[in-house]
Amino acid sequence: MNNQSSNESHVSPFDAICRLNEQGNEYWSARELSKLLGYTRFDKFLPVIAKAEEACRNSGQAISDHMSRVRQMIATGKGAKREAEDVFLSRYGAYLAVQNADPDKPTVALGQTYFTIQTRRQEIVDEMTELPENQQRLIRRSQMSVLNTQLAETAKKAGVVTPKDFGIFQDHGYKGLYDGESARAIKTRKNLPQSEDILDWMNSDELAANAFRASLARQKIEREHIQGKEHASRTHYHVGKKVRQTIEELGGTMPENLPTPEKSIQQLQRDEQRRIEHQRQPSLFHTLENGDNDHSKDQSR
Prior knowledge:
- By secondary structure, this protein is α+β, with helices and mostly antiparallel strands.
- The chain folds into 2 domains: 2-129, no CATH class; 133-272, no CATH class.
- Helix content is 63%, strand content 8%.
- It has 14 helices and 4 strands.
- It has helices at 2-8, 13-16, 30-36, 46-58, 63-66, 91-99, 106-129, 133-158, 163-177, 183-189, 204-223, 229-249, 265-280, 284-300, and strands at residues 19-20, 26-29, 67-75, 81-89.
- It has a 4-stranded antiparallel β-sheet.
- Helix 8 runs parallel beside helix 11 (204-223) and helix 9 packs parallel to helix 12 (229-249).
- The termini are far apart.
């Protein structure tokens, strides 16, 4: 009972009311958000929305990109419904709303912390997408190392103990995500020796899909207290399949159709190391200039 409460505490109530539109973009209903923040009447929250719109305008952002006023049917007493005003907020729009809410309400402080952290995380993601592909690969491959370690620890607690068991467990995740392809089959398709790690031969998008799979699998196994290596493997398969379904629904490229990079992660790391060392070396002109200065100092003595 205590373990279940501990796991559920990781799910933010602000995540719980987040929705996705048909394009897969997340948004929040201002009506739902206002209730969570402690506003008993939505009309009391409308001045907060007005301040958020002003803040959005002052930040140089288009209000229509982050706040959309809509009319929709809402439930009233005894199962009846009526049309009412609402405002759909992007993550940034919700962040501005919470920042302008009544700070004396206890949950407002929680909301400010949540949206500040999540907005910064999104900024980091946006900054990362501007990096060259090879740098994105290096970062995401490093993330995969961390996620796989966490997944392995969780799987071990669930009963996936031996290296053979873990190999089977990992294969189930790949088969779900790659429409039945095992790790061996993926290596064959990519024309890789079986000794290679396929994660080292994935582009940034393919690594991102696998990171999503690994993270969700760990969360599901922990949240549902899954026990038994067979049950854990089936769970990993279904998570991989769900990630694949999400990619398909959003019109993304299936992971097996993404191009295989020309260089492995190890090759990129060596290239990066050579680049750093080259930058550290003084230029020929700088060396000669310092040599002349040293020679002049000797003569002056």
